[in-house]
Amino acid sequence: MGTKRGVLISAIAFGIYHWFSYGVLGNIMAMILVFIGTGLMGYAWAWAFSKTKSIMLPFGLHLGWNFVYNTIFSKGPLGNLVLISKGENELTDWASLFNFISGLIIVPFIVLLYVKYFVKKETNIKTSPN
Fold first, then answer.
1. pLDDT tens track of the chain, all 130 residues?
2. Which residues contact 85 (CB under 8 A, 6 or more apart)?
């Protein structure tokens, strides 16, 4: 299948999976937003795996993101923690998509830049037992 196609399929599956875990199935604008954000993150995780040939970096990055999202931004099952939302708007039109797009793109973009410039590609260098 190849690395590029595999990474893309993984990212698409990751984005679609999150429609169900975020409970946005049926709300087209929310589905677009969730697909873009989680799809980009899924692309970064899959790309990190393809470069390192290890699940540890994508696992650590995902675990770190989930920790920040669920605890710092009070979006998880633990309720209000550090930062508390004053109110949320349902994503129903293009204007609401535009209002939330900056937060949706910034974190995945930073992660993609990190993977591109700071994650070294694994090479198959064999060393002699001497």
1. 899 999 999 999 999 999 998 888 998 988 988 898 889 999 999 999 999 999 999 999 889 888 877 777 655 555 665 555 555 555 555 555 555 555 567 778 888 888 889 888 876 655 556 5
2. 73, 74
Using alpha carbons, list the distances in angstroms from residue 93 to 11, 58, 80: 24, 33, 27
Report pTM.
0.73
The two tokens of residue 127 are 């060393």
The two tokens of residue 16 are 């679609």
Check if the beta carbon of residue 75 is closer than 8 Å to that of residue 68: no
Cβ atoms of 20 and 47 within 8 Å: the answer is no
Question: Taking the CA atoms of the chain, what radius of gyration do you get in angstroms?
Answer: 17
